[in-house]
Amino acid sequence: MAQEDVFKKIVSHCKEYGFVFPSSEIYDGLGAVYDYGQNGVELKNNIKQYWWKAMTMLHENIVGIDSAIFMHPTIWKASGHVDAFNDPLIDNRDSKKRYRADVLIEDQIAKYDEKIQKEVEKARKRFGDSFDEAKYMETSERVKETKEKRDNLHARYAEAMQGPDLEALKQIILDEEIVDPISGTKNWTDVRQFNLMFATEMGASADASMKVYLRPETAQGIFVNYLNVQKTGRMKIPFGIAQIGKAFRNEIVARQFIFRMREFEQMEMQFFVAPGTELEWFPKWKETRMKWHQALGFGAENYRFHDHEKLAHYANAATDIEFKMPFGFKEVEGIHSRTNFDLSQHEKFSGKSIKYFDPQTNESYTPYVIETSIGVDRMFLSIMCHAFEEEKLENGETRTVLKLPAALAPVKCAVMPLVKKDGLPEKAREIIDQLKFHFNCQYDEKDSIGKRYRRQDAIGTPYCVTVDHDTLTDGKVTLRFRDTMEQERVNISDLNSIIEDKVSIASLLKKLQ
User: Fold this and answer.
1) Which of 195, 230, 254 is the C-terminal boundary of a domain?
2) Cα dihedral sign for 46, 19, 323, 88?
3) 261 known ligand binder
4) Mean pLDDT across the chain
5) Residue 98 is assigned to a ligand binding site
6) 268 assigned to a ligand binding site
7) CA distances in angstroms from 91 to 83, 109, 186, 198, 250, listed in the order given
8) Structure pTM?
9) 3 state DSSP class of 19
10) Listed residue (169, 27, 6, 180) closest to 87, CA to CA
């Protein structure tokens, strides 16, 4: 099945099983805005809990805050967002659709990469065990030709993005003969910049109102509070401040379901270090964050680092952690060395000293910052994409199952009476009452036991407990495992110890030690 069709099934599954709904759907929706349903909010909260605990519990020198969405408008002037928070956009005159010029070019580079990889895979099948990939890459004329085109495009793109040079970006699109995926034409407008911040007014009357912005990132709330946290918490460099919160961007090219939205949630941590040590900490945080992702068990081959072609105005090093979605490798987390730009700017624009006094060196300085920033919604989507499976069973049937990491699953355990009589529902309720203090449980008595299993598979419930007539005499239940569909008889008294360790966030955190 084509990956595009798989993605459509995932989007449909999210709505059908209460994970994600189009926002304001009864009013025909609101573009690129989504609501999380009853199962989606549980999964989302578990993702946030995994990140928060990994940051604040496993690192003695990282604490959290929760800053306001509205902040003084001068903050965004100081951070550069008022003047520099722009996307290069281009329109196709025939389809009337708008695109990010940089994304069009990056997709073209990816096509060259895919073409090279296809040639390599064909050669691998042809030569078998004797295949030498490095030698083939050096000697194949077809591969060398494609690679030269790819490298030349990459170099032109990297140079054009430094400005960015908008005319150069358009020329690349024309030279590469990039077509609009809808109209199939190359009838492009000029590239122009578009600021992404939402603006509103604060005040009781129009005359006395002040223009404020919905924050486009959560980081600035950390920067303007860093000295408050440092002093009240008696923190010493190096230390970090973590925050989870909503951010807002007026994305013109919002697409791919919840991957790019106008209202989204971020998990950011700013790590404050001594000047000159930032590029020592940068690779350490790269390794730490990749380990966090891979602890979910999705396979190292589905992750990669992608260094930025164009560094943001505040950075001296930047990389993305990309995950293999059905629509290609896409960014889920950014790791940036932000230098001392933000703190210096806030000191300059506020007129107040926010330098850190280092008791070790007996000097005051502006700390440098390593940032890790992950989109909750993108993380949610990457997990759903990897977990979604349609399995062919031995009896010829197909089951749809979400093989979610047990610690992240919305429901950890479903308890089901075999029939709705003979005291079985009462016994099942009794078991629920024992387990519900430890993890999220669900009671289900409607339909056949097979249909109930399928319902729980579809929302990713790792364990199902079936209460039958023998339970009333032997004190045992049937425990079913989602991934293997295997079943075993266990004592009711053992259920909590069997399930809890595997479904707790602690089970993931232990992998990070």
Assistant:
1) 195
2) negative
3) yes
4) 92
5) no
6) yes
7) 22, 20, 10, 22, 17
8) 0.83
9) coil
10) 169
CA neighbours within 13 Å on the CB side: how many for 218?
26
Residue 439 assigned as binding residue: no
Q: Is 63 annotated as a binding residue?
A: no
* In the predicted structure, residue 208 carries a pLDDT above the cut 70: no
Residue 290 has pLDDT above 90, yes or no: yes
What total of structural domains would you count in the chain?
A: 3
Mean pLDDT to the nearest integer, 210-239:
94
Judge whether 473 lies within some domain.
yes
For tokens 């249909």, what's the residue? 451
126 is in an annotated binding site: no
Q: Given a cut of 70, is residue 402 above it in pLDDT?
A: yes
On whether 344 is known to bind a ligand per the annotation, the reply is no
Task: Confirm whether residue 267 is marked as ligand binding.
Answer: yes
Which value, in Å, is the radius of gyration of the alpha carbons in the chain?
Answer: 26
Task: Determine if residue 21 is labeled as part of a ligand binding site.
Answer: no
Say what percent of the chain tops pLDDT 70. 98
Digit-coded pLDDT (tens) for 93-113: 999 888 889 889 988 998 998
To the nearest 10°, the Cα dihedral for 164, 167, 171, 174?
Answer: 110
500 is in an annotated binding site: no
Whole-number Å distance between alpha carbons of 403 and 49? 19
Q: What is the pLDDT of residue 1?
A: 58
Domain span at 303: 1-68+217-392
156 is in an annotated binding site: no
4 among annotated binding-site residues: no
